[in-house]
Design goal:
Low-confidence stretches: 215-220
Largest sheet: 9 strands, mixed
Shape: elongated
Number of strands: 13
CATH superfamily of the largest domain: Vaccinia Virus protein VP39
Number of domains: 3
Helix content: 40-55%
Mean pLDDT: 84
CATH class of the largest domain: Alpha Beta
CATH topology of the largest domain: Rossmann fold
Strand content: 5-15%
CATH architecture of the largest domain: 3-Layer(aba) Sandwich
Structural class: alpha/beta
């Protein structure tokens, strides 16, 4: 199916999904209906993936050329033959060997949909002739018990699923409506994989919930285009990937997509993350499980600064979008914490605490990409300038990218991306970049996707990432006035170790009226000097004239 038709399909799906959320919004707040909808979408997805594999097995069982062949002649009756097939279809290994999530009978979507309308006290009869001892109490309790069954059969989900449907203050009939609506969402498509569809679903909902919840929504949602840009620039093909403020796991999902698009192997990447917010930690784990990704998110949700879940980790790639300008972050953190190698971050702003935490967990040849507020590039208050100077002088900064405004759903704070590297020497096809920093001013890129939000197109991402890689490899890179500039540490020191790209890239000739920026700057500086001198001369004349009239100046 053409890309345009895929987009049309997904747009229609978006509309249907938000209709589903609307059915709950009148009685639940944003945080509650987020989990009510996403929890059911999770069950629908894993059930659909399970059923797709089940259909494959049914077809294979009847094929003599296949290892799963069951000969009808070996059985006395059709009923006995079918019973044997049903038993075979319940062998867990047939699913897990294909990386398909195992779904127990009580938790399969058809079980939910068929039994949700039953009155309390009804006994649920599951397919394949197996009768459970489960007694229906309420729709909410049925969903909770289904999630509990999934969790018990899948240890990686322990403590992850939000089993609170029976506690929701909501009409049970609305939950039944929601189940029936979600039942119509297809996870089978001619050209889109089920995981791609669900990934779209999660991304769409997280974006919508970020808008609905306001500022707090940003704790777990980073725009896909920004995540894609950082992943494209770092290129995490293999090794340990870490996000200390992982939200819903967006960086890991895009890393998976990047690896697949470039023909790599997912098994070559190990995923590590940490998240403080319990419900967001749950979303991230669900996000990994439905994609079949192995992960380590620590024993529990925890504060990255006071309860580091991966103290001994040294990652090859670190990527994060932590909360901007976070205050009061250091309660319980020692002033001589070994992470503060380049200076103690101020209590009123965690920007350089996040940066140094990431550096601490970076392997000797590792690289990191970090979204921070623009103030981090120039602030000299409360030791921030000294930390930034130390990072520059230790040749850790590799690239700075200034981003356009209006990229985030929940903040208007201008942002930038820091790229740091432990080793800028020549290796892996890259030249020696020691003593150099690349500045990219991307503020003019992107487009307005609606009245309030800007986004990057693929060609914008390709331009930024392509410039970075060309500079790293010295393959066709040239400074481009108004967009990019390779500067030395000596040049940066002359700018008082301020890292704002606009200071280095200058302006385009068009912006300078067709005159090269350097020439125009020299001309305007000389002109300003003349005007100051003329001003001083005129002031002196006025002072003398007033003195002649008896006035003292």
């Amino acid at each position: 199916m053409p890309h345009q038709e895929e987009q049309k399909f997904l747009a229609a799906l978006d509309k249907k999904l938000w209709t589903a959320a609307d059915k709950l919004r009148s009685t639940l707040d944003a945080a509650q209906y987020k989990h009510a909808v996403l929890g059911l979408l999770f069950v629908k997805y894993v059930s659909d993936a399970f059923e797709i594999r089940r259909k494959e097995l049914v077809a294979q069982f009847g094929t003599s050329e296949h290892e799963y062949f069951l000969d009808r002649a070996d059985y006395d009756s059709d009923e006995e033959y079918q019973a044997e097939i049903n038993d075979e279809l319940e062998i867990r290994d047939y699913y897990t060997e294909k990386n398909v999530f195992w779904v127990p009978e009580l938790a399969r979507w058809q079980t939910l949909q068929n039994n949700a309308p039953l009155p309390p006290g009804s006994e649920i009869v599951v397919k394949n002739g197996k009768i459970t001892t489960y007694t229906m109490r309420s729709v909410g309790r049925l969903i909770d018990d289904a999630l509990d069954a999934i969790e018990k059969d899948n240890p990686r989900l322990k403590g992850v699923l939000n089993k609170q449907y029976s506690r929701l203050q909501i009409d049970q009939a609305k939950l039944i409506e929601l189940i029936n609506l979600i039942a119509t969402i297809p996870f089978e498509h001619a050209s889109l994989h089920a995981k791609d569809i669900l990934g779209h679903v999660y991304e769409y909902f997280l974006g919508q919930f970020a808008l609905a919840e306001g500022k707090k929504g940003g704790q777990f949602y980073t725009p896909k285009s920004i995540v894609s840009l950082i992943v494209e620039m770092l290129q995490p093909y293999q090794g340990r990937v870490y996000d200390p403020a992982m939200g819903s796991g967006g960086f890991f999902v895009q890393s998976e997509n990047f690896i697949k698009e470039h023909g790599g192997r997912l098994g070559n990447v190990s995923i590590y993350g940490q998240e403080y917010n319990h419900t967001t930690w749950q979303l991230a784990a669900m996000n990994m499980v439905i994609r079949g990704l192995d992960f380590n998110f620590g024993k529990e949700p925890a504060n990255t600064f006071t309860n580091d879940q991966h103290p001994d980790l040294r990652a090859d790639y670190v990527m994060a979008n932590p909360p901007f300008n976070m205050k009061e972050w250091d309660t319980g953190v020692s002033d001589d914490d070994p992470r503060w190698q380049y200076g103690k971050p101020p209590s009123g702003n965690a920007n350089f605490a996040w940066l140094q935490h990431m550096l601490y967990h970076l392997a000797p040849n590792g690289s990191l990409g970090l979204l921070l507020a623009n103030g981090s590039m120039s602030s000299n208050t409360n030791n921030e300038g000294q930390i930034r100077k130390a990072l520059i002088e230790n040749d850790l900064v590799e690239c700075m990218v200034a981003l356009p405004g209006q990229l985030f759903t929940n903040t208007q704070i201008p942002a930038c991306i820091w790229f740091l590297s432990r080793n800028k020497k020549a290796r892996n096809g890259q030249r020696d970049r020691s003593g150099e920093v690349l500045f990219i001013d991307a503020r003019k890129l992107g487009y307005m996707k609606d009245r309030v939000l800007r986004d990057f197109r693929k060609e914008d991402i390709d331009k930024i990432a392509g410039t970075f890689h060309a500079w790293q490899k010295e393959e066709g890179y040239e400074d481009d006035a108004g967009f990019c500039k390779s500067a030395t540490l000596v040049e940066i020191a002359k700018h008082d170790h301020i890292l704002t790209p606009g200071r280095y890239v200058g302006a385009t000739e068009e912006e300078a009226g067709g005159e090269p920026f350097g020439e125009k700057m020299a001309r305007l500086t000389a002109q300003l000097k003349e005007q100051f001198e003329e001003s001083d001369r005129l002031q002196e004349e006025i002072r003398q004239d007033l003195a002649g009239l008896g006035y003292e100046c």
